[in-house]
Amino acid sequence: MSQKQNPAQEVFSFHYFEVPIYKLPFYLFLYLKKKKTKGLIHSESLVPMQLGASLFSKKRYHLSQIALIAFWQSEEDLDQFLNLSRNHPIHSSWQMRLRLYRRWGKISELDSAVLYPKPSKEDTPMVAITLARLKISQLFRFTKWGRPVEKQVRDHPSQRFAFAAFRPFRNFLTFSIWNSEHEMIQMVHGLEPTKDGLEHKEAMAERNRKDFHTEFTTLRFEILNHCATRNGSGTLGVPDAGYGFPEFIRLGNPVSASTLN
């Protein structure tokens, strides 16, 4: 898709918030689906997972928390939605606002998203998100090849933090922030094997041999804004000059809790 500029530019938002565990099914399957939300083009709600943790470990699954990505016609629509959601957990969520500049692969609901020009500063932090619809018949292969990649990303010195998420039975997402796009690409292609590892490169070769998914896309974003909560504090955000990381991500990764400025 050709790049272009719009007066009212599209924006993606990423939210992380706590919910009562008994409301988890509502937020996974019905939230933002029951009625039309002005300016919302698409959203995905998933359960966060700790990268590299055992599939059978309680530490892997955060069943009282939601990771949500939303695709909006404009930032004004997002602001209006949050202002009308004061009684919902998303209002005070940890959030990032993102602008899409690269897409590889395809998820039908996001195929119309505009690709904006790549940021001019190449040494600035960026966000990478993958979203996949798994073939149930490929679950064993996906797990076998995917968990080594989780550990590779979790332990890589160039990521600021990262986690995975899922929604039963076949929807998976990964979210990661990198020091720069260049350093992320180094990891993806295993250009320095002793530092970057080869797990991702090998998993992609296996995926090309026989696909794990019915749909799959990798998205790269410029970071427009980021905050711990709407008011700079809260149980999820660890305040850091008004910014912060979700608690389990900070505790689960050997990274600095510095801001992204």
- Structural class, by secondary structure, is alpha+beta
Q: What ranges have pLDDT less than 50 throughout 5 or more consecutive residues? A: 230-244, 247-261
Total E-strand runs: 8
Radius of gyration: 18 Å
CATH architecture: 2-Layer Sandwich
The number of domains is 1
Portion of residues in beta strands equals 25-35%
Report on the biggest sheet.
8 strands, antiparallel, barrel
Text of the CATH class: Alpha Beta
Biggest sheet, spatial arrangement of strands: 1-3-2-6-7-5-8-4
Kindly report the CATH topology. Alpha-Beta Plaits
Order of helices and strands: EHEEHEEHEEHHHEH
Determine the mean pLDDT. Answer: 85
Helix segment count? 7
Distance between the termini: 30 Å
* Helix content range: 10-25%
Give the overall form.
globular
Structure description:
The chain is of the alpha+beta class and 261 residues long. It is 24% helix and 31% strand. A hairpin with a 3-residue loop joins strand 6 and strand 7. The longest helix has 17 residues, at 139-155. The protein starts with 10 loop residues before the first strand and ends in a 9-residue tail after the last helix.
Q: Which terms summarize this structure?
A:
261 residues; alpha+beta; Alpha-Beta Plaits; eight-stranded antiparallel β-barrel; disordered C terminus
Short description:
The protein is of the alpha+beta class and about 260 residues long. The chain has 7 helices and 8 strands. The protein has a single domain, classed as Alpha-Beta Plaits.
Topology (SSEs and partners):
Layout: E1 11-18, H1 24-29, E2 40-49, E3 65-72, H2 75-83, E4 94-106, E5 126-134, H3 139-155, E6 159-167, E7 171-178, H4 181-189, H5 193-196, H6 199-209, E8 213-227, H7 247-252
Antiparallel strand pairs: 1-3, 1-4, 2-3, 2-6, 4-8, 5-7, 5-8, 6-7
